[in-house]
Amino acid sequence: MDRPAILVARAVFPETLARLAQHFDVDASADDRVLAPAELAERLRGKAGAFTTGSERIDAALLGACPQLRAVANMAVGYNNFDLAACTAHGVLATNTPDVLTETTADFGFALMMAAARRMAESERFLRRGEWRRWSYDMFTGSDVHGATLGLLGMGRIGQAIARRGALGFGMQVIYHNRSRLPVEREAPLGARYVDKATLLREADHLVLVLPYTAASHHAIGAAELAAMKPSATLTNVARGGVVDDAALAAALRERRIAAAALDVFEGEPQVQAALLDVSNVVLTPHIASATVATRRAMAELAATNLIAALGGERPPNLLNPEVLGRAAG
Ligand code: 8YV
Prior knowledge:
The longest helix has 19 residues, at 293-311. The protein is 38% helix and 14% strand. It has 14 helices and twelve strands. It has a seven-stranded parallel β-sheet, sandwiched between helices. β3 (49-52), α3 (60-65) and β4 (71-74) form a beta-alpha-beta unit. The mean pLDDT is 97. It starts with a strand and ends with a helix. α1 (14-23) runs parallel beside α13 (293-311) and α5 packs across α7. By secondary structure, it is α/β, with parallel strands linked by helices. It has two domains: 5-100 and 293-329, Rossmann fold; 102-284, NAD(P)-binding Rossmann-like Domain (Rossmann fold, 3-Layer(aba) Sandwich). The site of 2-keto-D-gluconic acid (8YV) has 8 residues, from loops. The site of 2-keto-D-gluconic acid has 8 residues, from loops.
């Protein structure tokens, strides 16, 4: 029987592996290592499909080395680890896992923003160090979230979910900048105002980044943008490392040119720049915005569904490059 062979590049829920094994010959990562590009190409040689996470880069070199590959299913909504044009050129179907993580990621983005505004991580470290001797009127005074201006750079599904929390739960004014403006019927219930990027930077009390990482969004927040923000403002990044110039941010935090930041994603993660580790007014988490048990299960199941459909000759629910199917049909 010619069951397609697949690689599951990283450890995943046993039930997801079991489901995949009903359809495919599965080569599963035993030790959950992030494979170096050459190892990944080696393990993928002769395989029809790959179940990947954001840690695996699927690019022209890898695709050239793995001509049997027909589908790559990312267990992530972001897919900047895929060279989508190269996938399309090689006739490889590429999929991601949108929607299932929207609310969970928005919860975490909002929590991080609150943690930065109210100095939660900084004050906890102070307490753990045994430095809390007495109450004082200005100890760890931060800035309010309720009633403040929430600025969103990016306004896709996760951005809108954060805007909903801010507008409906915390009485925030919502301003946003995005490649395209939302339809008025989406803006209206949130009272969301579309502004240019300069206005967003100037007016936001709490700026949250929720845009995809592309060549165009590389260092969308750098020294100049940080200088344009209010000194009292906070910056939260739940998008991707690389959207922020982390070195410039560390300098701005150290010099208190903005009040605080909260980061779940980093340039070159899992490495984190020493300069960021050295400043106190930043909350740092290890890329866990989608990390609830229920959501990670849903992401794994959706990635599996996409791979099963793609290699079974059906249109996967979250196909990123439908041109490949069009070409096959033509
Ligand atoms: C993942 C994410 O945990 O979905 C995304 O884009 O950043 C996270 O939810 C990560 O990419 C692992 O695949």
